[in-house]
Amino acid sequence: MTIKNTRSNFTIFLSGICLIVLAVLLLFKTFTLELINFRLIGIIFGLAGFLNILAFGQNKRWYFRPGWMLQQSFFLIFFGVMILIAPYIGLEINLTFFSFFAFFTAATQLSASIQLRALEIRRWWWIAFFGFSNILFGVYFIVNPFEAYFDLFFSVSVFMLVTGLIYMTEPIVYIKNRKKVGNTN
Fold it and tell me: Is residue 103's pLDDT more than 80?
């Protein structure tokens, strides 16, 4: 089996790597000045969103496939801009932004998983599982039960680590579809 569209898969993989690097930076090297942390988050979100849009444009087959990556890409860019101006608004607004981000991601992933199941793509449940985990993250950011133990950047770094892993596994979901299309000759 030849893997087609490796450029788009590499671009999504690179987007996931950007989010994982951001998570590791926030976990192990949180800057003392919060403004630097927020600017870093905003810039990486914008870059990841741009890379996802680029990957969508490189893979012509994705135009006809249900998915959540394109919507997520535009929202990442929007969210990156909002995070860049959010430090001037206040910390509570940032928690609201991250909960909204998690809920939006969950909604797009759950709707895509329903469509993938209808198309009989075997790994549809991966996207559904990720959608449900994002619902949990959204509730976590609203309720913030461990506020005394974890700061905002630790919670965001765990969320970005999971999101980066989700981006990196996205091309794997469609492998069966590639084999199915390749064997119809």
Answer: yes
Mutual angle of helices 175-182 and 152-173, in 10-degree steps: 10
Model confidence at 173: pLDDT above 50:
yes
> Region 145-170: what's the mean pLDDT?
81
Q: State what percent of residues in the chain have pLDDT above 90.
A: 15
- Kindly report the average pLDDT of the chain as a whole number: 79
Q: Which residue has the higher pLDDT, 168 or 8?
A: 168
Q: CA nearest 2: which of 181, 162, 124?
A: 181
CA distances from 173 to 82, 97, 125, 139 (A): 31, 28, 9, 26
- Which residue from 135, 138, 160, 139 is spatially nearest to 37, judged by alpha carbons? 160
Question: Could you give the CA distance from residue 166 to residue 13 in angstroms, rounded to a whole number?
Answer: 10
3-class secondary structure per residue, the chain: CCCCCHHHHHHHHHHHHHHHHHHHHHHHCCCCCHHHHHHHHHHHHHHHHHHHHHHHHHCHHHHHCCCCHHHHHHHHHHHHHHHHHHHHCCHHHHHHHHHHHHHHHHHHHHHHHHHHHHCCCCCHHHHHHHHHHHHHHHHHHHHCCCCCCCCHHHHHHHHHHHHHHHHHHHHHHCHHHHHHHHCCC
Q: What is the pLDDT of residues 116-140, one digit of tens each?
A: 888 887 888 888 999 999 999 999 9
